[in-house]
Amino acid sequence: MLLADHWNDYEVLDCSGGEKLERWGEYTLIRPDPQVIWNTPRDLPGWRSPNAHYHRSSRGGGEWEFFDLPEQWEIRYRTLVFRLKPFKFKHTGLFPEQAANWDWFSEKIRAAGRPVRVLNLFAYTGGATLAAAAAGAQVTHVDASKGMVGWARENARASGLEEAPIRYIVDDCQKFVEREARRGSFYDAVIMDPPSYGRGPKGELWKLEDTVHTLIRSCVQILTPQPLFFLINSYTTGLSASVLTYFLKLEVERRFGGQTCSEELGLPVTGTKESRRLGLALPCGCSGRWKTV
Predict the structure, then answer these.
(1) For the whole model, what pTM was predicted?
(2) According to the model, what pLDDT value does residue 40 have?
(3) Fewer Cβ in 10 A, N or C end of the chain?
């Protein structure tokens, strides 16, 4: 498992009965998690006095119950600053488990010894974009949501990366990649964090299982002759780590050589001595990684 275990401002304190108890900086949240199918005693005080609790509805979706939570606050990871706020579908604007990938590709960018152009697709609020830019890369940040791209700009300003070489694009990811191929634009690395379902800026329907292979193929066409890495994240049940490995070996490793490895992402559960002693970790999707040798 690829553990995001270098956080100071975030931790999973406990998880039980379909929910997780998390600390986001100074604030404690309870949010649903479909992976938590075990029931254990909820002994930690945070279960009884959270700052906010997202309640899942039996009809789908859900809503927040707020006790003492600001509209917006910040947490840090290394040199990066992220502005958070609760919004629909239980999210806060950040997926902390992705820090395991930020550290992985940041080391590769720093060690490359050459300029590195990174394409970040489905780039959301910019966690991977900022990590890559802080490591010295030139980044093209693409997301279909204008609001998410604006949020990424805010995170860049908060992180002191307002002047970093980041190009922000609001567009359908597949269409953007196809245009880049026609323009002859090439990248040394690709990061993609596609949702299971989604819509483009003009309502284009995105279903991961139906479209991800085509997108990977398209991305391979705009890689430089000596690419550095290719990263795919998946939170979709049908796309296991083995499926991501198959895609990357078939489309990237077959053409460029290198090495492919795919594993689950996870967050340590740290709220009790017992959870730390047992090394418990909450699974959080999976990542497929290809790297040059």
Answers:
(1) 0.93
(2) 95
(3) C
